[in-house]
Amino acid sequence: MIAWLIALPALAVIFAVTRQLARRHGRAALRLIIAADVLLFGGALALLIVALSGSAARAAASSTAAAGSGAGSAALIGAAIAVAGASIGASIAVAYTGAAALAAMSERPELFGRAMVIVGLAEGIAIYGLVVAVLLLGKA
C-alpha cells in the first residue's frame, strides 16, 4: 500500500513532464516520451509484482481466511463484469432500436406498441446480466 502512495505522485509528475515536452518540442521529444512511457510501464509492472507478492505472503500466512475471501472477491468481480457487460450491451441495443422505433413511429404512429416491445426486448439484456450477477453472488 505504501508503494502505491509513493509511486502515484511520481507517475503524475512524469506524465506532466512528458506532456510539457511534447507541447514545446513537438516531434523531437517523441523518443524521450517513448522512453518515459517504457519507464512508466516498467515501474507499474514492478509495483504490480510488489503488490502481488505482498498479497501472496499474506495469503500464505493465513491460508484459510484468504481462501474464503478469494472466492468471494472472484464472485464479486464476476458479478460486476456481468452487470457492466450486460448494461453496456443493453444501452447499445436500446439506442439502435429506440432510434429505429422513433423513425418507424414518425411514419406510422400505429406501430407504437410493436416498437416498444422491441425496445423492451433490448432492455431485457440488462436484466439477464442482473440475474447472472445474483446467481454468482449466491454461489459465493
Distance between the termini: 27 Å
CA-based shape: flat
Helix/strand/pairing class, anyone?
A: mainly alpha
**Percent of sequence in beta strands:** under 5%
Instruction: Spell out the helices and strands N to C.
Output: HHHH
Tell me the Rg in angstroms: 25 Å
Q: What can be said about the biggest beta sheet?
A: none
The count of DSSP E runs of length 2 or more, i.e. the number of strands, is 0
Low-confidence stretches: none
**Average pLDDT figure:** 77
What percentage of residues falls in helices of 4 or more residues? over 70%
How many helical stretches?
4
Write the layout of secondary structure elements.
Blueprint: H1 2-25, H2 30-61, H3 63-107, H4 112-139
Quick rundown:
The protein contains 4 helices and no strands. It has 140 residues and is an all-alpha fold.
Can you give a write-up of this model?
The chain is an all-alpha fold and 140 residues long. The chain is 92% helix and 0% strand. The chain has four helices and no strands. The protein has helices at 2-25, 30-61, 63-107, 112-139. It is flat, with a radius of gyration of 25 Å. The mean pLDDT is 77.
